[in-house]
Amino acid sequence: MSANSQGKTPGFVPPFKVQLHVEGERGVLMTLPPAPRVLVGRTDDDSQTDLGIDLAPLGGASKGVSRIHAAFFYQDNLLHVEDLESTNGTRINGMTLLPNKPYRLRDGDELEFGSARLIVRLR
Predict the structure, then answer these.
(1) How far apart are CA 30 and CA 22, in angstroms?
(2) According to CATH, what is the number of the domain 18-122?
(3) Which tens digit of pLDDT belongs to each residue from 71-91?
(4) Where are the domains of the chain?
(5) In this predicted model, what pLDDT tens digit does every residue of 3-52 receive, in sequence order?
(6) Radius of gyration of the chain (CA)
(7) pTM of the predicted structure, to 2 decimals
(8) What are the start-end ranges of the H helices in 5-103?
């Protein structure tokens, strides 16, 4: 199955709703699209990548977010994140992730893409 332009996959039902609270941005809450794999990064004028989570409107470039920074995906009904060889790295609760290795996310985890911080909420 392939995802459509909104990052959704017809017929895919995630095991729970995932919300990302953007730290430092009062009241900004992003919801992970219902897809088995969601790319996160930042768009720009030259970008042609279909991102499920675009951090460009929140200062992604100045915060060191790569164009294709990481991916969220489900494995065994659990949410994981994987750094996709980003320039400025991805961290969970301050721990730097190794590129191309899945890490499980839990409710309340602080996730950093470059210096952009998000709090993971599983509902």
Answers:
(1) 8
(2) 2.60.200.20
(3) 999 999 999 999 999 999 999
(4) 18-122
(5) 443 456 677 888 899 999 998 877 789 999 999 999 999 998 777 788 99
(6) 13
(7) 0.87
(8) none
